[in-house]
């Protein structure tokens, strides 16, 4: 079995360590094909551990103060057609009556 060259420095002296490959020359570590695709995929879960996807509808599980406003998002507010992003606040959405918002997935549940 021949191991792949390092994708970073092209070294031929790579070795396998569990599920990943390691380059001893540049210390780069990477996974094989399918595992790499899964690792690169953005995984966002709601407060109950359900996996969220773009276009899902969620409900807010806790009153949330809106920064820069005296308004509060109330428990049970439905948020339709969410978009997942790879940031601190990992949900972009538009909430009726509030406009564009960024939410953390830990404060929502999938409907």
TrEMBL record:
Domain Protein YjdM N-terminal per the UniProt entry, residue ranges: 2-30
Lineage top rank: taxon: Bacteria
Matching Pfam families: YjdM (PF03831), Zn_Ribbon_YjdM (PF08274)
Annotated ranges, domain Protein YjdM C-terminal: 44-110
UniProt protein name: Zinc ribbon domain-containing protein YjdM
Similarity comment: family membership: Belongs to the YjdM family.
Species of the source: Ureibacillus aquaedulcis
């Amino acid at each position: 079995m021949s191991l792949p060259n390092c994708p970073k420095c092209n070294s031929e002296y790579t070795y396998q360590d569990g599920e990943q490959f390691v380059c001893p020359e540049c210390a780069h570590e990477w996974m094989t094909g399918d595992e790499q695709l899964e690792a690169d995929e953005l995984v966002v879960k709601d407060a109950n551990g359900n996996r969220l996807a773009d276009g899902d509808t969620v409900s807010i599980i806790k009153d949330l103060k809106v920064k820069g406003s005296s308004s509060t998002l109330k428990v049970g507010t439905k948020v339709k057609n969410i978009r997942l992003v790879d940031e601190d606040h990992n949900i972009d959405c538009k909430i009726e009556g509030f406009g564009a918002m960024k939410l953390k997935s830990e404060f929502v549940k999938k409907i």
